[in-house]
Amino acid sequence: MKPPVALPPRHQWRFGWCACCDRQTLIAPGPQIATDTGPVTLPYCVDGFERAGRYVHRTRLRSARADLNLPR
């Protein structure tokens, strides 16, 4: 099974500040968010990509439950 949020290739990682945990670590371009001036790419660490993957997975599960009208 393919992960919901895949890690970027090795050449895109660099040292910098992570947007998800606000610490200095290895980061890569993460998800894009829409702003008034256009899309912005957030720098995420490995933990941020794992957290985003879990979020996407939970969202898909909630959507599937809603489609089946199952209680939480």
Written description of the protein model:
This protein is of the alpha+beta class and 72 residues long. 32% of the residues lie in helices and 32% in strands. It has a three-stranded antiparallel sheet with strand order 1-2-3.
- Structural class by SSE content: alpha+beta
Estimated helix fraction: 25-40%
Q: Please trace the helix and strand order, writing H or E for each element.
A: EEEH
How many helices? The count is 1
Number of strands: 3
Provide mean pLDDT, rounded. Answer: 85
Task: Estimate what percentage of residues fall within beta strands.
Answer: 25-35%
Strand order in the largest sheet:
1-2-3
- How many angstroms does the end-to-end distance come to? 25 Å
List the helices and strands and how they pair.
Layout: E1 14-17, E2 24-35, E3 38-44, H1 46-68
Antiparallel strand pairs: 1-2, 2-3
Brief summary:
The chain is of the alpha+beta class.
List keywords for this structure.
72 residues, alpha+beta, three-stranded antiparallel sheet, 1 helix, 3 strands
